[in-house]
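Example 3.2
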Amino acid sequence: MLSQEEQFSDTDVDEGKTEQQAKKVSKKPKQTIESLAEIQQRAMMAYTAYMEAERQVQAAYKEQEGQIEKLYEGAKQQAAKVCEENVAQALKIREESKRQAVKAYEESVAQALEAREEVEQQASKICEENIAQALKIREEAEQQAWKARNEAIARTWQIFTKSKG
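Structure, written as tokens:
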């Protein structure tokens, strides 16, 4: 058996252990309550952070959507500008082609008129030469006819004078 001292010290140890266990037990619900409050606070902070992140995502989405819309409008305006420039260039090319066609037409008409004038001059020259030749032939024919007439009159006069004589 243990001496009283030993029992007493064992009792003291048991009491110390019991007090420590009691403190631990009393600390556990307090720690648990504090842990729950901390968890609840963390959960609220996490929820708040989540809500803030969601708000930021929505804001970023709206901003991105605005940028995309702005890019779309810019692209649309640029396409319209390019289209207008192409139409203007096509009209300019058409006007230049039209001007060149008119110039070519005018040059062709001028060449045709020049050729006509040359042909008319040649025809006029040929006509004048033919007229001159015809007049010369006529004159020669008239001279021959006059000569033949005069010879015929002279023969007739000779015959007439010989027969009278």
